[in-house]
Amino acid sequence: MIFMTLYINDIIAIIAVALIIFIILWYFLTIRSIHQLEVRINEAESGIDVAIQKRIAIIVNIITIINNDDEFEPNTINEIRQWFKEIPQNATLSDRARMIKQMNTITNWVVSNKKISFDWFPKDLFVSLSDNKENLKIASEYYNSLVNQLNMKIKSFPQSLVANAIYSDQRPYFVLEDEK
Q: Which residues of 147-162 are buried (b: 16+ CB within 10 A; e: fewer)?
């Protein structure tokens, strides 16, 4: 009888140790997956920044070619030129979306302006603008898909326990003004 009691106690101890190891392993794997998603989201945000800077370069070229800053708010042109040098470190996603909206306003004005002759405009400039718009859309969709994965992980039980323990917060989606 004593032999059987020790045997059952050993089995229970082994199961308890295995369960503890499993929980610890799951905990660290969950932390790792949350951190990996956060890193991928930061990289995707950089992809959005690259697309924005390319758009800014195109807009600056258009403004230089038409040589008509008077049609736009001086602050808008100055802000675009400032962002052309470097996107501010503290720029939020809504700041980025606002900048894109301002650039779209300028682009729409140029395209709809009857005073501008497009015969002397470089054709590749508008092709670049169109390609950039598509690249920005792809970058924002990729970013939003990663944010969705992270936010779902943070909301889901039991991963939410780990996310709260490591102070991981939900991330905002990147929504362009014309998509609202």
A: beebbebbeeeebeeb
**Tokens of residue 98, six digits:** 């606002």
What are the start-end ranges of the H helices in the chain?
Answer: 2-66, 74-85, 93-112, 123-155, 159-165
Evaluate whether 168 touches 139 at the Cβ level (below 8 Å). Answer: no
Q: Return d(Cα 125, Cα 131) in angstroms, integer.
A: 10
Locus of tokens 């609202």: 180
**Token pair for residue 34?**
């949350």
Residue (of 55, 82, 77) closest to 66 by Cα position:
77
84: pLDDT strictly greater than 80:
no
Amino acid, single-letter form, for residue 157 = F
For 87, the 3-state DSSP assignment is: coil
Confidence of residue 108 (pLDDT cuts 50, 70, 90): confident
User: Would you give the distance in Å from CA 100 to the centre of its chain?
Assistant: 14
Q: Work out the burial of residue 139: count CB atoms within 10 Å of its CB; fewer than 13 is exposed, 13-18 middle, 19 or more buried.
A: buried
3-class DSSP state for residue 175? coil
**Residue type, position 162, single letter:** V
- Rounded to whole angstroms, the Cα distance separating 122 from 8 reads 83
pTM as predicted: 0.74
